[in-house]
Amino acid sequence: MSNLLGYNDVCRLLPQTYPFIMVDVVEELEPGKRIVCRKNITGNEWMFQGHFPGNAIFPGVLLIEGMAQAAILLARAGSSSVEATYMLAGVKTRFLKPVVPGDQVRFVCEVIKFASVGGIVDAEVSVDGEVVAKSQLTFSIQSH
């Protein structure tokens, strides 16, 4: 499967910069409806120096960040304003299984509601087709 957006495209669309980019590529996109993104988890990433030495586990808060970044990409795909600031306003998350180096995670976000001032998405993270985390994310949009 070819990617709709590669890493450089993702970096241009997200407000975050290295080392805080949690999306490598966009695989599927239905503007205003759904997005599927991927991140390859490698053992040489910065967070594994301290989380946890001798037992590397990808931090749950960074899985939430990856879901939020996928939601930003989804929102920007259907918006004329890529200059807006997207602020996470609420998170309801369940972690079901740890993510470790060597895993390839997929972030899937589906729109519950989008408006000019914010939105709500259902998001999940999966590894090899198995859901490892799921969230409902609420965010506000501040136009510039």
Describe the structure.
The protein is 17% helix and 41% strand. It has 144 residues and is an alpha+beta fold. It has one domain: Thiol Ester Dehydrase, Chain A, CATH 3.10.129. It has a six-stranded antiparallel sheet, with helices on one face. A hairpin with a 2-residue loop joins β5 and β6 (130-142). The longest helix is centred in the middle third of the chain and has 18 residues, at 60-77.
pLDDT < 50 stretches: none
- The value of Rg in angstroms is 15 Å
How many E strands? 6
**Structural class by sheet pairing and helices:** alpha+beta
Average pLDDT confidence is 94
Which sheet architecture does the biggest sheet show? Answer: 6 strands, antiparallel
CATH class: Alpha Beta
The number of helical elements comes to 2
The CATH architecture category equals Roll
Examine the coordinates and then state which fold CATH places here, giving the name of the CATH topology.
Thiol Ester Dehydrase, Chain A
What coarse outline follows from CA principal-axis ratios?
Answer: globular
